[in-house]
Design a protein that fits this description.
Distance between the termini: 19 Å
Order of helices and strands: HHHH
Radius of gyration: 19 Å
Shape: elongated
Strand content: under 5%
Helix content: 55-70%
Largest sheet: none
Length: about 110
Amino acid sequence: MSNANLLIAANTVWVVIAAILVMFMQAGFAFLEAGLTRMKNAAHIAGKNVLIFGICSLVYWLVGFGIAFGDGNSIIGTCSRSSSPASRSRSSGAPWPSGPSCGSTSSSASRSR
């Protein structure tokens, strides 16, 4: 395994661990809020926390992933949405799509060679 592949694996593991910690933190906030309200409102608070987590996950998928893992440009670091996930998967050589808003497009794949 090359150093580049090892670095990618270590970064992936760290991102997954951080995401798991954020999910547990969201559950902790749900317990805190439910403990601070009356019993009749506990289900409402739990539903609100699940809804907030879902909305935030979608917003991260649409915007944050491109900023965090994008190819980079002069504005915010995202790349084109014009290529389909299948073409991104084929151009990067990976069996999975690179992400919702960025990844290895034909221009970035040719740059890395």
